């Protein structure tokens, strides 16, 4: 509240912010009043009012947010005054009650989009729209709240610092930006802290500068570090928002390690026939530094007449060569000292350290036929795992010490490489991989390389080659076991339901360090990393129901701390179970309530199957009905299922003997051959005669023989075999022959009255022939 004093009468009035006040005395007698804190009120015809309102951004209420109130002395509360609002956001963002003058904001406002709005207020007569007072300008200022977290420009930064740097050496400065108001409160005041990377590094809380915090960090021990930096607003106070970024810091190499011989004595042999300038062996000093810090130079102390040593710049080996011709009979043994030192020295580390080393080399001159000699015995080669097939592993070298210097052939003893993981070039001894190597399967591979003289295969030398598989962080951590997790329906928020752990088949130098995380927006569960490679799963809420969901699938991201970082997502299945009051599980089966509001999936599938079956029955019934409607081929009381041939040829009746000859049906081949054409004159005028059936009672055999004789003596018979059929009933038939053949000539002379005596079976036949009788027709 603000208290101010007015004259001539002393009036103490308490003002509430965001409200405009009108004094009870007349405007003519009022004089300007002054607030006790030095702020002035502006006087207008409509009374005393604030020229500025304040509004918090990101208002989350459901109703319109109240901003302030306008009031005019012309308003007598009789409903004749109307307030009108114009300017930025008027009518859309800000609304005014035209009767009371109350101003409301219609939606959430963001200060980062616009910090202040300028509006104008008018007082009009509601009925005439006459302007009662001139418009007045006022501002609505949006007050900032802490709604924007700090953000870094990159998710991952890369930096380097020399190894062995002093404590407090600056590595890199990274800063974050906060979109909140820099001039108001602590919403944009950032404080930096380190979440991961201690005790190796620290960060300046004010400017974000990362510095070394541990002396003597050696690159040869650990080269890469991951540092997680957090920027938190509200000056780091509780409730502030934060953002993080990862800084990958690599220790750059300095020459802090002198070269050292692994063996301070080397023994070499040389054939007396070795040419001048020929190499008889190599010696190697180890320097863990990199680049030019690991460059070495070899020399022979005091010089030597017979030998010299040069440096192989590629392998940093000392190659011993022949300086003059050797004579086995003159001198068989030589001994000299070799010095190795770095070619580049760092003045900071030369005090107290000798950046040189010495080794003794003994050379024996031989004049015997010896097998090939390897330059090293044994060979220790390092190769990274996951190396692709066909990749280079190392080189073994052997030579023939004899004067002839016979060629050497290399091979691998397959008894020592049963899995056939390696191959060797038979000429140059280059060892390559045949399969990809996996350190988790085997850390060492011990093989034997055989060198044979080509001209004398009996001269054989074996050398053990120890291949060390270096670890690469290529396996992501995963659950240490399969978890059976359940949550009770009556569980409360924040209750522990499972403790999980992880395993990783890799072996980092500093040990395993796993980080567990889940989606922070998960409304059901949360996770707390215990910082000991385990994590607790807690409930985010209470009141789980098997009816709503019986299973929850909780994805958990597990990351390691090696380089590069490997992570995997494992899913924890959480069952919802019914428990007693002490939290003991009783049942985890989903409940099927008889009066459920909805249908289960099984019920919906059953209903769908029933509908499909009904549709199939309807379609089948319709198809059967349609098939029944088709008329049959033969509509008859006697449905004979034989071959039925229909003829659409209507004859001229029984008397039409020219249109159709019944004899054709009896003997179609003979009759067709003998049939005379009616449209041309026949070439043969022999009439076709038919012999009447035998009238006496002769046997069927005689009848057939007679017919055969007739056909043989018939001049009109065809000149090829033919089949003739006859319908002779035989002599035993009372009705004699019923054939109509040869009946055309005697049809008119026959009497068919006897057919009426044959009984009802021949009634139809009797009516047909008796009806055609000439006597009856007359």
From TrEMBL:
Topology within the bilayer: Single-pass type I membrane protein
Membrane-spanning parts: 603-624
GO biological process: adherens junction organization; calcium-dependent cell-cell adhesion via plasma membrane cell adhesion molecules; cell migration; cell morphogenesis; cell-cell adhesion mediated by cadherin; cell-cell junction assembly; homophilic cell adhesion via plasma membrane adhesion molecules; morphogenesis of an epithelium
A Pfam family that the UniProt record links to this protein: CADH_Y-type_LIR
Localisation: Cell membrane
UniProt cross-references to SUPFAM superfamilies, sorted A to Z: Cadherin-like
Positions of the Cadherin domain: 75-152, 153-261, 262-374, 375-479, 479-592
Keywords tagged on the record: Calcium, Cell adhesion, Cell membrane, Cleavage on pair of basic residues, Glycoprotein, Membrane, Metal-binding, Repeat, Signal, Transmembrane, Transmembrane helix
A GO term for molecular function: cadherin binding
PROSITE patterns: CADHERIN_1 (PS00232), CADHERIN_2 (PS50268)
GO cellular component terms, A-Z: adherens junction; catenin complex
UniProt superkingdom: Eukaryota
Protein purpose: Cadherins are calcium-dependent cell adhesion proteins. They preferentially interact with themselves in a homophilic manner in connecting cells; cadherins may thus contribute to the sorting of heterogeneous cell types.
Protein name (Swiss-Prot/TrEMBL): Cadherin-10
Lineage summary: Eukaryota, Metazoa, Chordata, Craniata, Vertebrata
Gene encoding the protein: LOC114454148
């Amino acid at each position: 509240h603000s208290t101010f004093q007015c004259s001539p009468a002393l009036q103490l009035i308490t003002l509430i912010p965001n409200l405009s006040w009108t004094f009870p005395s007349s405007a003519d007698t009022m004089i300007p009043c002054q607030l006790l804190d030095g702020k002035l009120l502006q006087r207008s015809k409509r009374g005393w009012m604030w020229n500025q309102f304040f509004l918090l951004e990101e208002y989350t209420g459901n109703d319109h947010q109240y901003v302030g109130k306008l009031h005019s002395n012309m308003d007598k509360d009789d409903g004749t005054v109307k307030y009108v609002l114009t300017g930025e956001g008027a009518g859309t963002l800000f609304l005014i009650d035209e009767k009371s003058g109350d101003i409301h904001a219609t939606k959430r406002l963001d200060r980062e989009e616009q910090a202040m709005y300028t509006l104008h207020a008018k007082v009009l007569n509601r009925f005439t729209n006459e302007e009662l007072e001139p418009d007045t300008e006022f501002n609505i200022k949006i007050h900032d709240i802490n709604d924007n977290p700090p953000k870094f420009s990159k998710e991952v930064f890369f930096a380097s610092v020399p190894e062995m740097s002093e404590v407090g050496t600056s590595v890199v400065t990274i800063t974050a930006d906060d979109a909140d108001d820099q001039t108001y409160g602590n919403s944009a005041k950032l404080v930096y802290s380190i979440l991961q990377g201690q005790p190796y590094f620290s960060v300046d809380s004010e400017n974000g500068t990362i510095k070394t915090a541990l002396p003597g960090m050696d690159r040869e021990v650990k080269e890469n570090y991951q540092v997680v930096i957090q920027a938190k607003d509200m000056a780091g106070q509780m409730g502030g928002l934060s953002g993080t970024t990862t800084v990958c810091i690599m220790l750059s190499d300095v020459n802090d390690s002198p070269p050292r011989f692994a063996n301070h004595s080397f023994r070499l042999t040389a054939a007396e026939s070795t040419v001048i300038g020929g190499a008889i062996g190599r010696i190697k000093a180890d320097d863990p530094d990199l680049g030019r810090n690991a460059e070495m130079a070899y020399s022979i102390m005091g010089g030597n007449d017979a030998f010299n040593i040069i440096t192989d710049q590629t392998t940093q080996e000392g190659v011993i060569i022949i300086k003059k011709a050797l004579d086995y009979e003159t001198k068989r043994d030589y001994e000299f000292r070799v010095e190795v030192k770095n070619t580049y020295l760092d003045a900071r580390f030369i005090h107290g350290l000798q950046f040189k080393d010495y080794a003794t080399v003994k050379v024996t001159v031989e004049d015997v036929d010896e097998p090939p000699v390897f330059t090293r015995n044994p060979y220790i080669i390092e190769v990274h795992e996951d190396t692709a097939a066909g990749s280079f592993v190392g080189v073994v070298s052997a030579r023939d010490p004899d004067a002839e210097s016979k060629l050497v052939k290399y091979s691998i003893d397959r008894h020592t490489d049963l899995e056939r993981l390696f191959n060797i070039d038979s000429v140059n001894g280059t060892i390559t991989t045949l399969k990809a190597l996996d350190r988790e399967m085997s850390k060492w591979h011990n093989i034997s390389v055989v060198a044979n003289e080509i001209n004398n295969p009996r001269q054989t030398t074996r050398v053990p080659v120890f291949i060390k598989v270096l670890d690469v962080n290529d396996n992501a951590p995963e659950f240490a076991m399969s978890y059976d997790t359940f949550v009770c329906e009556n569980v409360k928020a924040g209750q522990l339901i499972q403790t999980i752990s992880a395993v990783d088949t890799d072996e980092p130098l500093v040990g395993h360090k796993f980080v567990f995380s889940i989606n922070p927006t998960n409304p059901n569960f949360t996770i707390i990393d215990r910082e000991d490679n385990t994590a607790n799963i807690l409930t985010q809420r209470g009141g789980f129901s098997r009816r709503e969901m019986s299973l929850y699938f909780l994805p958990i991201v597990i990351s390691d701390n090696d380089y590069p970082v490997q992570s995997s997502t494992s899913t924890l299945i959480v069952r919802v179970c019914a428990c007693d009051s002490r939290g003991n599980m009783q049942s985890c089966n989903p409940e099927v309530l008889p009066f459920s509001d909805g249908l289960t999936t099984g019920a919906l599938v059953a209903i769908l199957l029933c509908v499909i079956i009904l549709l199939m029955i309807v379609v089948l019934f319709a198809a059967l009905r349609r098939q029944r409607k088709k008329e049959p081929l033969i509509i008859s009381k006697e449905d004979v299922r034989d071959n039925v041939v229909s003829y659409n040829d209507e004859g001229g009746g029984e008397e039409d003997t020219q249109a159709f000859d019944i004899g054709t049906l009896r003997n179609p081949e003979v009759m067709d051959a003998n049939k005379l054409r009616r449209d041309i004159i026949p070439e043969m005028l022999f009439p076709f005669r038919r012999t009447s059936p035998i009238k006496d009672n002769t046997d069927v055999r005689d009848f057939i023989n007679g017919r055969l004789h007739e056909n043989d003596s018939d001049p009109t018979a065809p000149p090829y075999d033919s089949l003739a059929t006859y319908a002779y009933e035989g002599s035993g038939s009372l009705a004699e022959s019923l054939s109509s053949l040869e009946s055309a000539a005697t049809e008119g002379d026959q009497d068919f009255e006897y057919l009426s005596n044959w009984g009802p079976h021949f009634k139809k036949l009797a009516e047909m022939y008796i009806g055609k009788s000439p006597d009856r027709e007359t």
